[in-house]
C-alpha cells in the first residue's frame, strides 16, 4: 500500500446514504487527501445509548455505496476508498484517539492523518479522550452542519474548514420512514432517492429497519 495523504470519516452509517457520499466527494474535491478511510462505529462515544444495526449489514451497505461512488463521481477515480472494521472489532466504547493510533499502525500515511468531523462537535472537541495528544497526531477537517457555522479556539489544533452544503440527518429519516411501513409496503421513492440503488435494494431484500 502506497504512502498517501489520508483522511478518516467515522460514523454509524446506519444506513450509509447519498449525503455521506457527497461528503466524501467534498473532501476529495477540496483537499489533497487521496485515501479516505470509512470507519463504522461499534459503540459510539457520542451516542452511548444508540444501538446501530448489526455490523455485517452496515458493512455490506458501505461496500455497496462505495462501489456506487465511482458512478456518481467518476472524476474522483484517484481517490482510494477503504472500509476499516477496527472499531467494530474493539470491545467497549470506541474513542477517536484509539482509532487514530491504530490507523497509523495499519496504513502508510503521508504527513498527518485527517479526522473529518462536523462543526456540531467542535464545542466539546477539547474534552475528547486523549485530546492533547490527538491534536498533535491529526488535522481536523471540519464540515458544516450548523446553520451558523461554529468555530474552535485552540491555536494548537490544526483545523481546516470545508465549504460544503449543509447535510440533513438522512439516516434518521430513512430509519423512521422504514419503521412506519406496513408489512407489504415497499420503500417509498422519497426514501429510495436518499440512497444508492444498490443500498436501497439491500434494505428491501433484507427487510431492514422495519418493526
Give keywords.
211 residues; alpha/beta; six-stranded parallel beta sheet; two-stranded parallel ribbon; 8 helices; 8 strands
Provide the fold topology.
Blueprint: E1 6-11, H1 18-30, E2 35-40, E3 43-44, H2 55-72, E4 80-83, H3 86-89, E5 93-94, H4 96-106, E6 113-118, H5 131-137, E7 138-143, E8 159-161, H6 170-179, H7 189-192, H8 197-206
Parallel strand pairs: 1-2, 1-6, 2-4, 3-5, 6-7, 7-8
Question: What would you note in describing this structure?
Answer:
It is a single chain. By secondary structure, the protein is of the alpha/beta class. The chain has eight helices and eight strands, in the order βαββαβαβαβαββααα. The strands form two sheets. The protein has a six-stranded parallel sheet with strand order 4-2-1-6-7-8. Helix 2 (55-72) runs antiparallel to helix 8 and helix 4 packs parallel to helix 5.
Radius of gyration: 17 Å
> Which CATH top level class fits?
Alpha Beta
CATH superfamily: HUPs
Query: What do we call the CATH topology?
Result: Rossmann fold
Overall number of strands? 8
Strand arrangement, largest sheet? 4-2-1-6-7-8
Element-level helix/strand string: EHEEHEHEHEHEEHHH
Coarse morphology? globular
- The share of residues in helices is 25-40%
Please report which band the strand proportion falls in: under 5%, 5-15%, 15-25%, 25-35%, 35-45% or over 45%.
15-25%
Secondary-structure-based class equals alpha/beta
Tally of alpha and pi helices = 8
Amino acid at each position: 500500500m502506497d504512502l498517501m495523504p489520508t483522511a478518516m470519516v467515522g460514523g454509524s452509517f446506519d444506513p450509509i446514504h447519498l449525503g455521506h457520499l457527497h461528503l466524501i466527494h467534498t473532501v476529495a474535491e477540496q483537499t489533497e487527501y487521496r485515501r479516505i478511510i470509512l470507519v463504522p462505529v461499534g459503540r459510539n462515544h457520542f451516542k452511548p445509548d444508540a444501538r446501530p444495526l448489526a455490523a455485517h449489514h452496515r458493512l455490506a451497505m458501505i461496500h455497496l455505496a462505495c462501489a456506487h461512488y465511482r458512478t456518481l463521481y467518476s472524476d474522483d477515480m484517484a481517490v482510494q476508498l477503504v472500509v476499516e472494521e477496527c472499531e467494530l472489532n474493539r470491545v467497549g466504547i470506541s474513542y477517536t484517539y484509539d482509532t487514530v493510533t491504530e490507523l497509523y499502525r495499519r496504513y502508510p500515511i503521508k504527513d498527518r492523518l485527517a479526522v473529518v468531523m462536523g462543526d456540531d462537535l467542535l464545542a466539546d472537541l477539547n474534552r475528547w479522550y486523549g485530546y492533547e495528544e490527538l491534536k498533535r497526531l491529526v488535522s481536523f477537517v471540519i464540515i458544516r452542519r450548523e446553520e451558523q457555522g461554529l468555530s474552535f479556539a485552540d491555536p494548537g489544533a490544526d483545523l481546516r474548514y470545508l465549504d460544503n452544503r449543509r447535510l440533513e440527518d438522512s439516516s434518521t429519516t430513512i430509519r423512521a420512514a422504514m419503521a412506519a411501513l406496513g408489512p407489504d409496503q415497499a420503500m417509498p421513492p422519497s426514501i429510495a432517492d436518499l440512497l444508492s440503488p444498490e443500498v436501497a435494494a439491500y434494505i428491501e431484500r433484507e427487510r431492514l429497519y422495519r418493526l
